[in-house]
Amino acid sequence: MLVDEIDVGSVRIPRDVLGLVPAAFARRAKVLPVSVSDDTVSVVMASPEDFETLDKLENMTGLIVSPIRCGDLTDLDLAIRRFYPRVDGDADGAEAVFDSVINRAVHMHGSDIHICPSADGGVVRMRIDGKMIEDRKLDRHAVAELTSFVKVMAGMDIAERRAPLDGSATLFSEGEEVHLRIATIPTAYGEHVTIRLLSKVMIEGLDSLSDLGMSAAHYALFRDALKYPSGMILLSGPTGSGKTTTLYASLRLFCEDTTRHVVTIEDPVEMPIPGATQVKVDSDGDRVSFAKALKSVLRHDPDVIMIGEIRDLETADIAVKSALTGHLVFSTLHTNSAAGILTRLVNLGVPAYLVAATIRIAVAQRLVRRPCPHCVGWHAPAPREVALLRAAAGIDAVERIPEARGCSLCASTGYLGRTAIYEMLPVDDNVKRMILDGAGEAELEAVVAADEVLPTLWEDGVAKILKGDTTLEEVEAACPALALGKQHGGEA
Protein backbone atom coordinates (compact mmCIF):
# COMPACT_ATOMS: atom_id res chain seq x y z
CA MET A 1 0.00 0.00 0.00
CA LEU A 2 1.46 3.34 -1.05
CA VAL A 3 1.14 6.05 1.62
CA ASP A 4 1.60 9.82 1.48
CA GLU A 5 4.85 11.55 0.68
CA ILE A 6 7.31 12.27 3.47
CA ASP A 7 9.96 14.92 4.04
CA VAL A 8 13.09 12.79 4.38
CA GLY A 9 15.08 15.83 5.47
CA SER A 10 13.21 15.79 8.79
CA VAL A 11 13.10 12.12 9.71
CA ARG A 12 14.87 10.70 12.77
CA ILE A 13 15.50 7.00 12.26
CA PRO A 14 16.47 4.54 15.05
CA ARG A 15 19.61 2.51 14.38
CA ASP A 16 17.74 -0.80 14.66
CA VAL A 17 15.43 0.29 11.85
CA LEU A 18 18.36 1.25 9.63
CA GLY A 19 19.91 -2.13 10.40
CA LEU A 20 17.04 -3.92 8.68
CA VAL A 21 18.43 -2.96 5.27
CA PRO A 22 22.10 -3.40 4.31
CA ALA A 23 23.82 -0.12 3.50
CA ALA A 24 25.00 -1.24 0.07
CA PHE A 25 21.48 -2.29 -0.93
CA ALA A 26 19.95 0.94 0.39
CA ARG A 27 22.39 3.04 -1.62
CA ARG A 28 21.99 0.94 -4.77
CA ALA A 29 18.19 0.60 -4.68
CA LYS A 30 17.55 4.16 -3.38
CA VAL A 31 15.51 3.02 -0.38
CA LEU A 32 15.41 4.30 3.19
CA PRO A 33 13.58 2.45 6.01
CA VAL A 34 12.14 4.99 8.43
CA SER A 35 9.97 3.19 11.00
CA VAL A 36 8.60 -0.18 12.11
CA SER A 37 5.12 -0.78 13.46
CA ASP A 38 4.05 -4.30 14.42
CA ASP A 39 4.84 -6.45 11.34
CA THR A 40 5.26 -3.56 8.88
CA VAL A 41 8.30 -1.51 7.92
CA SER A 42 7.76 1.85 6.20
CA VAL A 43 10.32 2.50 3.47
CA VAL A 44 10.89 5.68 1.46
CA MET A 45 11.62 4.73 -2.14
CA ALA A 46 12.65 6.43 -5.32
CA SER A 47 10.35 4.04 -7.23
CA PRO A 48 7.47 2.82 -5.02
CA GLU A 49 6.09 0.79 -7.95
CA ASP A 50 9.31 -1.26 -8.20
CA PHE A 51 7.81 -4.59 -7.11
CA GLU A 52 11.10 -6.45 -7.51
CA THR A 53 12.73 -4.17 -4.93
CA LEU A 54 9.68 -4.49 -2.68
CA ASP A 55 9.98 -8.29 -2.79
CA LYS A 56 13.68 -8.14 -1.95
CA LEU A 57 12.96 -5.80 0.98
CA GLU A 58 10.29 -8.14 2.35
CA ASN A 59 12.62 -11.12 2.04
CA MET A 60 15.55 -9.41 3.78
CA THR A 61 13.48 -7.79 6.56
CA GLY A 62 10.89 -10.51 7.09
CA LEU A 63 8.30 -7.75 7.37
CA ILE A 64 5.52 -6.31 5.23
CA VAL A 65 6.89 -3.30 3.34
CA SER A 66 4.81 -0.14 3.20
CA PRO A 67 6.36 2.10 0.50
CA ILE A 68 6.39 5.87 0.94
CA ARG A 69 6.74 8.22 -1.99
CA CYS A 70 9.57 10.76 -1.86
CA GLY A 71 8.73 14.12 -3.38
CA ASP A 72 12.35 15.13 -4.03
CA LEU A 73 14.81 12.45 -5.15
CA THR A 74 17.76 14.71 -4.40
CA ASP A 75 16.62 14.90 -0.77
CA LEU A 76 16.29 11.11 -0.70
CA ASP A 77 19.80 10.65 -2.05
CA LEU A 78 21.21 13.04 0.58
CA ALA A 79 19.29 11.25 3.34
CA ILE A 80 20.55 7.84 2.23
CA ARG A 81 24.13 9.12 2.21
CA ARG A 82 23.60 10.60 5.68
CA PHE A 83 22.17 7.45 7.24
CA TYR A 84 24.22 4.96 5.20
CA PRO A 85 27.67 6.53 4.75
CA ARG A 86 30.37 4.62 2.91
CA VAL A 87 32.68 2.97 5.43
CA ASP A 88 34.92 0.48 3.64
CA GLY A 89 37.44 -0.25 6.40
CA ASP A 90 40.25 1.61 4.64
CA ALA A 91 42.53 4.26 6.14
CA ASP A 92 39.70 6.78 6.00
CA GLY A 93 37.32 4.50 7.93
CA ALA A 94 37.55 6.45 11.21
CA GLU A 95 36.90 9.72 9.41
CA ALA A 96 33.89 8.24 7.64
CA VAL A 97 32.47 6.93 10.92
CA PHE A 98 33.08 10.31 12.59
CA ASP A 99 31.36 12.18 9.76
CA SER A 100 28.41 9.82 9.97
CA VAL A 101 28.09 10.24 13.73
CA ILE A 102 28.40 14.04 13.60
CA ASN A 103 25.91 14.36 10.74
CA ARG A 104 23.42 12.16 12.54
CA ALA A 105 23.80 14.07 15.82
CA VAL A 106 23.43 17.46 14.13
CA HIS A 107 20.43 16.24 12.13
CA MET A 108 18.74 15.07 15.34
CA HIS A 109 19.71 18.27 17.22
CA GLY A 110 21.86 16.30 19.64
CA SER A 111 23.82 18.10 22.34
CA ASP A 112 26.52 15.52 23.14
CA ILE A 113 28.26 12.51 21.61
CA HIS A 114 29.98 9.88 23.76
CA ILE A 115 32.54 7.34 22.54
CA CYS A 116 32.42 4.74 25.29
CA PRO A 117 35.08 1.99 25.38
CA SER A 118 34.28 -1.41 26.86
CA ALA A 119 35.91 -4.82 27.32
CA ASP A 120 34.72 -6.07 23.94
CA GLY A 121 34.89 -2.85 21.91
CA GLY A 122 32.66 0.10 22.60
CA VAL A 123 29.58 2.06 21.66
CA VAL A 124 28.79 5.54 20.37
CA ARG A 125 25.97 7.21 22.27
CA MET A 126 24.19 10.51 21.74
CA ARG A 127 22.16 12.79 23.99
CA ILE A 128 19.02 13.74 22.08
CA ASP A 129 16.55 16.08 23.80
CA GLY A 130 18.27 15.33 27.09
CA LYS A 131 18.08 11.52 26.79
CA MET A 132 20.93 9.16 25.91
CA ILE A 133 20.46 6.82 22.97
CA GLU A 134 22.85 4.23 21.55
CA ASP A 135 23.89 5.03 18.01
CA ARG A 136 26.18 2.17 17.07
CA LYS A 137 28.52 -0.53 18.36
CA LEU A 138 32.19 -0.64 17.36
CA ASP A 139 34.97 -3.20 17.72
CA ARG A 140 38.15 -2.41 19.65
CA HIS A 141 40.11 -1.38 16.60
CA ALA A 142 37.37 0.98 15.39
CA VAL A 143 37.08 2.59 18.86
CA ALA A 144 40.84 3.18 19.01
CA GLU A 145 40.94 4.61 15.48
CA LEU A 146 37.94 6.86 16.10
CA THR A 147 39.38 8.14 19.39
CA SER A 148 42.73 8.90 17.76
CA PHE A 149 41.04 10.71 14.88
CA VAL A 150 39.01 12.91 17.26
CA LYS A 151 42.09 13.74 19.39
CA VAL A 152 44.13 14.75 16.33
CA MET A 153 41.28 16.92 15.06
CA ALA A 154 40.97 18.61 18.48
CA GLY A 155 44.69 19.33 18.74
CA MET A 156 45.22 16.97 21.68
CA ASP A 157 48.36 14.98 22.49
CA ILE A 158 47.59 11.66 20.84
CA ALA A 159 50.28 9.90 22.90
CA GLU A 160 48.78 10.98 26.24
CA ARG A 161 46.25 8.35 27.33
CA ARG A 162 46.56 8.48 31.12
CA ALA A 163 45.39 12.03 31.83
CA PRO A 164 42.18 13.92 31.03
CA LEU A 165 42.50 16.18 27.99
CA ASP A 166 40.44 19.04 26.56
CA GLY A 167 40.28 20.39 23.02
CA SER A 168 38.00 21.95 20.46
CA ALA A 169 37.32 21.98 16.75
CA THR A 170 35.02 23.60 14.22
CA LEU A 171 33.54 21.90 11.16
CA PHE A 172 30.61 22.05 8.79
CA SER A 173 27.79 19.50 8.97
CA GLU A 174 24.37 19.49 7.39
CA GLY A 175 25.27 22.81 5.76
CA GLU A 176 25.95 24.63 9.03
CA GLU A 177 28.98 25.51 11.13
CA VAL A 178 29.32 23.35 14.24
CA HIS A 179 31.65 24.05 17.18
CA LEU A 180 32.86 20.97 19.06
CA ARG A 181 34.10 21.02 22.65
CA ILE A 182 35.94 17.75 23.20
CA ALA A 183 37.12 16.09 26.41
CA THR A 184 38.74 12.73 27.14
CA ILE A 185 39.15 10.82 30.38
CA PRO A 186 41.00 7.53 30.94
CA THR A 187 38.89 4.52 31.95
CA ALA A 188 39.59 0.85 32.63
CA TYR A 189 39.13 0.03 28.92
CA GLY A 190 40.55 3.11 27.24
CA GLU A 191 39.71 6.77 26.79
CA HIS A 192 36.11 7.90 27.05
CA VAL A 193 35.52 10.78 24.62
CA THR A 194 32.76 13.32 25.13
CA ILE A 195 31.92 15.81 22.38
CA ARG A 196 29.65 18.79 23.08
CA LEU A 197 28.00 20.15 19.92
CA LEU A 198 27.22 23.84 19.53
CA SER A 199 25.76 24.64 16.14
CA LYS A 200 24.66 27.97 14.72
CA VAL A 201 21.03 26.84 15.00
CA MET A 202 21.55 26.20 18.73
CA ILE A 203 23.22 29.57 19.21
CA GLU A 204 20.47 31.43 17.36
CA GLY A 205 17.94 29.64 19.56
CA LEU A 206 19.37 31.51 22.56
CA ASP A 207 18.70 34.96 21.14
CA SER A 208 15.30 35.60 22.67
CA LEU A 209 13.98 35.15 26.21
CA SER A 210 10.49 34.93 24.75
CA ASP A 211 11.37 31.62 23.08
CA LEU A 212 12.52 29.84 26.25
CA GLY A 213 9.09 28.76 27.48
CA MET A 214 8.44 31.27 30.28
CA SER A 215 4.80 31.86 31.19
CA ALA A 216 3.47 35.38 30.68
CA ALA A 217 3.75 36.11 34.41
CA HIS A 218 7.28 34.74 34.66
CA TYR A 219 8.42 36.55 31.53
CA ALA A 220 7.09 39.91 32.75
CA LEU A 221 8.70 39.46 36.17
CA PHE A 222 12.06 38.39 34.76
CA ARG A 223 12.18 41.25 32.24
CA ASP A 224 11.45 43.69 35.07
CA ALA A 225 14.34 42.21 37.06
CA LEU A 226 16.68 42.86 34.13
CA LYS A 227 15.94 46.58 34.43
CA TYR A 228 17.70 46.86 37.81
CA PRO A 229 21.02 48.74 37.51
CA SER A 230 22.57 46.59 40.28
CA GLY A 231 21.90 43.52 42.40
CA MET A 232 21.96 39.77 41.75
CA ILE A 233 19.81 37.53 39.55
CA LEU A 234 20.44 33.89 40.44
CA LEU A 235 19.34 30.70 38.71
CA SER A 236 19.27 27.16 40.06
CA GLY A 237 18.69 23.68 38.75
CA PRO A 238 20.60 20.45 38.14
CA THR A 239 23.21 20.07 35.42
CA GLY A 240 21.52 20.17 32.02
CA SER A 241 18.48 22.16 33.14
CA GLY A 242 19.07 25.06 30.74
CA LYS A 243 20.46 27.62 33.21
CA THR A 244 23.21 28.74 30.84
CA THR A 245 20.68 29.10 28.04
CA THR A 246 18.60 31.48 30.15
CA LEU A 247 21.69 33.41 31.23
CA TYR A 248 22.94 33.78 27.66
CA ALA A 249 19.56 34.92 26.39
CA SER A 250 19.53 37.56 29.13
CA LEU A 251 23.06 38.75 28.38
CA ARG A 252 22.30 39.10 24.68
CA LEU A 253 19.71 41.73 25.58
CA PHE A 254 22.38 43.73 27.39
CA CYS A 255 24.87 43.32 24.54
CA GLU A 256 22.36 44.93 22.18
CA ASP A 257 22.77 48.05 24.33
CA THR A 258 26.26 49.24 23.42
CA THR A 259 26.32 51.61 26.40
CA ARG A 260 26.87 48.71 28.84
CA HIS A 261 30.01 46.63 29.30
CA VAL A 262 29.11 42.94 29.72
CA VAL A 263 31.71 40.53 31.16
CA THR A 264 31.31 36.79 31.68
CA ILE A 265 33.44 34.42 33.80
CA GLU A 266 32.92 30.84 32.67
CA ASP A 267 34.32 27.34 32.96
CA PRO A 268 34.41 26.74 30.07
CA VAL A 269 33.13 29.45 27.73
CA GLU A 270 30.08 27.73 26.28
CA MET A 271 29.69 29.82 23.13
CA PRO A 272 30.55 33.30 21.87
CA ILE A 273 28.30 36.25 22.76
CA PRO A 274 28.94 39.14 20.35
CA GLY A 275 29.61 42.29 22.33
CA ALA A 276 30.59 40.55 25.58
CA THR A 277 34.03 40.12 27.15
CA GLN A 278 34.24 36.42 28.00
CA VAL A 279 36.84 35.15 30.48
CA LYS A 280 37.74 31.46 30.73
CA VAL A 281 38.47 30.08 34.18
CA ASP A 282 41.52 27.81 34.48
CA SER A 283 39.85 24.62 35.71
CA ASP A 284 43.12 22.63 35.62
CA GLY A 285 45.10 24.96 37.85
CA ASP A 286 44.82 27.86 40.23
CA ARG A 287 45.94 30.61 37.90
CA VAL A 288 42.44 31.92 37.10
CA SER A 289 39.82 30.73 39.60
CA PHE A 290 36.30 32.18 39.65
CA ALA A 291 37.20 34.37 42.63
CA LYS A 292 40.49 35.61 41.13
CA ALA A 293 38.85 36.29 37.76
CA LEU A 294 36.04 38.21 39.44
CA LYS A 295 38.47 40.37 41.41
CA SER A 296 40.31 41.21 38.21
CA VAL A 297 37.14 41.85 36.20
CA LEU A 298 36.03 44.49 38.68
CA ARG A 299 39.03 46.58 37.57
CA HIS A 300 37.78 46.56 33.98
CA ASP A 301 34.75 48.80 34.47
CA PRO A 302 31.94 46.24 33.95
CA ASP A 303 28.25 47.10 34.12
CA VAL A 304 26.92 43.53 33.92
CA ILE A 305 28.83 40.49 35.19
CA MET A 306 27.93 36.86 34.60
CA ILE A 307 29.63 34.25 36.82
CA GLY A 308 29.16 30.73 35.51
CA GLU A 309 28.62 29.26 38.97
CA ILE A 310 28.97 30.27 42.61
CA ARG A 311 30.78 27.36 44.22
CA ASP A 312 32.32 28.73 47.42
CA LEU A 313 32.17 31.51 49.97
CA GLU A 314 34.99 33.52 48.38
CA THR A 315 33.21 33.73 45.02
CA ALA A 316 29.84 34.38 46.68
CA ASP A 317 31.31 37.13 48.86
CA ILE A 318 32.90 38.96 45.94
CA ALA A 319 29.74 38.56 43.83
CA VAL A 320 27.56 40.02 46.59
CA LYS A 321 29.94 42.94 47.14
CA SER A 322 30.00 43.57 43.38
CA ALA A 323 26.20 43.77 43.41
CA LEU A 324 26.36 46.21 46.34
CA THR A 325 28.76 48.50 44.49
CA GLY A 326 26.60 49.11 41.45
CA HIS A 327 26.99 46.03 39.24
CA LEU A 328 24.23 43.72 37.97
CA VAL A 329 25.44 40.18 38.64
CA PHE A 330 24.09 36.98 37.10
CA SER A 331 25.07 33.53 38.32
CA THR A 332 23.90 29.99 39.13
CA LEU A 333 23.84 27.68 42.14
CA HIS A 334 22.93 24.03 42.46
CA THR A 335 19.72 23.96 44.54
CA ASN A 336 16.36 22.27 44.09
CA SER A 337 14.12 25.33 44.28
CA ALA A 338 14.10 29.09 43.95
CA ALA A 339 13.83 29.44 47.72
CA GLY A 340 16.85 27.17 48.12
CA ILE A 341 19.04 29.80 46.45
CA LEU A 342 18.57 32.21 49.34
CA THR A 343 19.26 29.68 52.08
CA ARG A 344 22.22 28.22 50.14
CA LEU A 345 23.99 31.60 50.13
CA VAL A 346 23.44 31.96 53.87
CA ASN A 347 24.74 28.41 54.41
CA LEU A 348 27.86 29.28 52.40
CA GLY A 349 28.56 32.03 54.91
CA VAL A 350 27.14 35.15 53.25
CA PRO A 351 25.50 37.34 55.94
CA ALA A 352 21.71 37.29 55.74
CA TYR A 353 21.51 41.09 55.54
CA LEU A 354 23.69 41.05 52.39
CA VAL A 355 21.55 38.33 50.81
CA ALA A 356 18.42 40.38 51.50
CA ALA A 357 20.03 43.56 50.18
CA THR A 358 21.40 42.19 46.89
CA ILE A 359 19.18 39.41 45.49
CA ARG A 360 16.55 40.76 43.07
CA ILE A 361 15.06 37.47 41.95
CA ALA A 362 15.73 33.75 42.45
CA VAL A 363 14.83 31.40 39.60
CA ALA A 364 14.59 27.59 39.47
CA GLN A 365 14.17 25.79 36.16
CA ARG A 366 14.06 22.37 34.50
CA LEU A 367 13.99 21.14 30.92
CA VAL A 368 11.20 18.85 29.69
CA ARG A 369 10.74 17.25 26.30
CA ARG A 370 8.01 18.32 23.88
CA PRO A 371 5.70 15.68 22.40
CA CYS A 372 6.35 15.11 18.72
CA PRO A 373 3.66 17.16 16.94
CA HIS A 374 3.45 14.55 14.16
CA CYS A 375 2.39 11.65 16.38
CA VAL A 376 1.26 13.07 19.73
CA GLY A 377 -1.77 11.34 21.20
CA TRP A 378 -4.26 12.35 23.87
CA HIS A 379 -5.97 10.30 26.56
CA ALA A 380 -8.28 10.77 29.53
CA PRO A 381 -6.11 10.86 32.67
CA ALA A 382 -6.08 7.78 34.88
CA PRO A 383 -6.96 8.10 38.60
CA ARG A 384 -3.27 8.32 39.60
CA GLU A 385 -2.73 11.07 37.03
CA VAL A 386 -5.81 12.96 38.25
CA ALA A 387 -4.50 12.76 41.82
CA LEU A 388 -1.11 14.06 40.71
CA LEU A 389 -2.62 16.98 38.81
CA ARG A 390 -4.79 17.82 41.81
CA ALA A 391 -1.84 17.76 44.20
CA ALA A 392 0.36 19.76 41.84
CA ALA A 393 -2.03 22.46 40.68
CA GLY A 394 -5.41 21.95 42.32
CA ILE A 395 -6.94 20.77 39.05
CA ASP A 396 -9.71 18.15 39.20
CA ALA A 397 -11.48 18.35 35.87
CA VAL A 398 -9.13 17.44 33.03
CA GLU A 399 -10.65 15.84 29.96
CA ARG A 400 -7.41 14.82 28.27
CA ILE A 401 -3.65 15.05 28.52
CA PRO A 402 -1.00 14.40 25.85
CA GLU A 403 1.00 11.18 25.54
CA ALA A 404 4.14 10.32 23.58
CA ARG A 405 3.71 7.71 20.87
CA GLY A 406 6.51 7.68 18.31
CA CYS A 407 7.00 7.94 14.56
CA SER A 408 9.73 8.22 11.95
CA LEU A 409 10.05 11.96 12.51
CA CYS A 410 11.08 11.53 16.17
CA ALA A 411 13.08 8.28 15.98
CA SER A 412 10.12 6.51 17.60
CA THR A 413 10.74 8.34 20.89
CA GLY A 414 7.48 10.30 20.85
CA TYR A 415 9.35 13.53 21.60
CA LEU A 416 10.83 16.29 19.47
CA GLY A 417 12.65 19.20 21.09
CA ARG A 418 12.48 20.60 24.61
CA THR A 419 11.04 23.52 26.56
CA ALA A 420 11.66 24.86 30.07
CA ILE A 421 9.50 25.10 33.16
CA TYR A 422 10.26 27.82 35.70
CA GLU A 423 9.69 28.90 39.28
CA MET A 424 10.54 32.42 40.42
CA LEU A 425 10.80 34.09 43.80
CA PRO A 426 11.09 37.90 43.70
CA VAL A 427 12.84 39.23 46.79
CA ASP A 428 10.34 41.85 47.93
CA ASP A 429 10.10 43.51 51.34
CA ASN A 430 8.30 40.51 52.86
CA VAL A 431 10.92 38.03 51.65
CA LYS A 432 13.71 40.36 52.83
CA ARG A 433 12.21 40.40 56.34
CA MET A 434 11.98 36.59 56.31
CA ILE A 435 15.65 36.29 55.30
CA LEU A 436 16.71 38.67 58.08
CA ASP A 437 14.60 36.67 60.56
CA GLY A 438 16.41 33.46 59.58
CA ALA A 439 13.57 31.80 57.67
CA GLY A 440 14.35 28.30 56.37
CA GLU A 441 13.87 26.93 52.87
CA ALA A 442 10.45 25.42 53.69
CA GLU A 443 9.13 28.77 54.93
CA LEU A 444 10.38 30.56 51.81
CA GLU A 445 8.92 27.83 49.59
CA ALA A 446 5.57 28.50 51.25
CA VAL A 447 5.78 32.07 49.93
CA VAL A 448 6.24 30.72 46.40
CA ALA A 449 3.34 28.29 46.88
CA ALA A 450 1.04 31.02 48.21
CA ASP A 451 1.56 33.31 45.21
CA GLU A 452 -1.57 33.14 43.07
CA VAL A 453 0.05 34.80 40.04
CA LEU A 454 3.45 33.15 39.72
CA PRO A 455 3.33 29.37 39.15
CA THR A 456 5.59 26.89 40.90
CA LEU A 457 7.67 24.44 38.86
CA TRP A 458 4.87 21.88 39.01
CA GLU A 459 2.15 24.41 38.20
CA ASP A 460 4.15 25.70 35.24
CA GLY A 461 4.63 22.10 34.13
CA VAL A 462 0.93 21.32 34.43
CA ALA A 463 0.03 24.42 32.42
CA LYS A 464 2.33 23.20 29.64
CA ILE A 465 0.83 19.71 29.86
CA LEU A 466 -2.67 21.08 29.33
CA LYS A 467 -1.42 23.05 26.29
CA GLY A 468 0.23 19.96 24.85
CA ASP A 469 3.75 21.36 25.26
CA THR A 470 4.95 18.41 27.36
CA THR A 471 3.67 15.28 29.10
CA LEU A 472 2.93 14.40 32.70
CA GLU A 473 5.70 11.79 32.60
CA GLU A 474 8.25 14.46 31.67
CA VAL A 475 7.22 16.87 34.41
CA GLU A 476 7.12 14.09 36.98
CA ALA A 477 10.64 13.01 35.97
CA ALA A 478 11.98 16.58 36.09
CA CYS A 479 10.25 17.47 39.38
CA PRO A 480 9.82 14.46 41.70
CA ALA A 481 6.48 14.21 43.49
CA LEU A 482 8.12 15.23 46.77
CA ALA A 483 8.70 18.69 45.26
CA LEU A 484 5.05 19.30 44.37
CA GLY A 485 4.14 22.97 44.29
CA LYS A 486 1.25 24.26 46.33
CA GLN A 487 0.20 20.88 47.81
CA HIS A 488 -3.52 21.36 47.25
CA GLY A 489 -4.43 18.65 49.67
CA GLY A 490 -3.93 15.67 47.38
CA GLU A 491 -1.20 13.06 47.29
CA ALA A 492 0.66 12.04 44.17
Describe this structure in words.
With 492 residues, the chain is of the alpha/beta class. The chain has three domains: 3-80, GMP Synthetase, Chain A, domain 3 (2-Layer Sandwich), CATH 3.30.300; 93-197, Beta-Lactamase (2-Layer Sandwich), CATH 3.30.450.90; 205-483, Rossmann fold. Helices cover 36% and strands 28% of the residues. The protein has 18 helices and 19 strands. It has helices at residues 15-18, 23-29, 51-61, 73-83, 93-107, 140-153, 200-204, 216-225, 243-256, 290-297, 313-324, 338-348, 352-358, 383-393, 429-436, 441-450, 457-467, 472-478; strands at residues 3-6, 31-37, 40-45, 64-70, 110-118, 121-128, 131-138, 165-173, 176-187, 190-199, 231-236, 262-266, 276-280, 304-307, 328-333, 359-371, 377-379, 401-403, 415-426. The longest helix is centred in the first third of the chain and has 15 residues, at 93-107. Residues 482-492 have low confidence and may be disordered.
